[in-house]
């Protein structure tokens, strides 16, 4: 690999014989080096391969402004998240999370704290991502000897949730809005039935998972309907009358006419989640 650009003594941009670009990090890997020199591959500790061109360009710009230790730290957090969550993450996570954590550390040093209004909902609906967020706080403390507040674990979780979406244009704010809507829907069910939902039940977990993907389908305007859905919905209306009426309240809240398929499965999930 040949050096294409040097960011600092420990970070550089390299290209191989196929002209693929890589950001590589290693202690002293660029020390006394110049553009065009061979990369000492024995010094490489971390390699960033960003296939999405836009993400790659933004990441290179980020490297101009952010301390190398923050970049290295976020690499470790992202690799840990991939292993624990077992999912593919968008390349943009290297840009968004690195930028976020570096800025969060700057605010922390200035004595400023950004509370996360959705911390409770994130803990409930995205426990795996939140646990990774908590572990990330340990990574940060080990690296820079600063313990960020629990709210930041929630913020990190939101970035991880966002990076799992197929559409890289989704913003963390959109995920936060979606999380609030899930909570509102659960509240509609609680008030309609005047009950507390069993948050540890399998039906509850399935329902929240259904809602997460339901909102993704709404955002993509996906509609799947069959004659069978129409037939089943007519039966469900009669058999699960209260659940169907609750579904209509949710549809009204969403201000969107749902397909018969969505009405059917939402009603069935409501019926299941409200049964003891």
From TrEMBL:
<protein>
    <submittedName>
        <fullName>Transcription antiterminator BglG</fullName>
    </submittedName>
</protein>
<keyword id="KW-0677">Repeat</keyword>
<dbReference type="GO" id="GO:0006355">
    <property type="term" value="P:regulation of DNA-templated transcription"/>
</dbReference>
<feature type="domain" description="PRD">
    <location>
        <begin position="65"/>
        <end position="170"/>
    </location>
</feature>
<dbReference type="Pfam" id="PF03123">
    <property type="entry name" value="CAT_RBD"/>
</dbReference>
<dbReference type="InterPro" id="IPR050661">
    <property type="entry name" value="BglG_antiterminators"/>
</dbReference>
<dbReference type="Pfam" id="PF00874">
    <property type="entry name" value="PRD"/>
</dbReference>
<feature type="domain" description="PRD">
    <location>
        <begin position="173"/>
        <end position="276"/>
    </location>
</feature>
<dbReference type="InterPro" id="IPR036650">
    <property type="entry name" value="CAT_RNA-bd_dom_sf"/>
</dbReference>
<dbReference type="InterPro" id="IPR004341">
    <property type="entry name" value="CAT_RNA-bd_dom"/>
</dbReference>
<dbReference type="InterPro" id="IPR036634">
    <property type="entry name" value="PRD_sf"/>
</dbReference>
<dbReference type="GO" id="GO:0003723">
    <property type="term" value="F:RNA binding"/>
</dbReference>
<dbReference type="InterPro" id="IPR011608">
    <property type="entry name" value="PRD"/>
</dbReference>
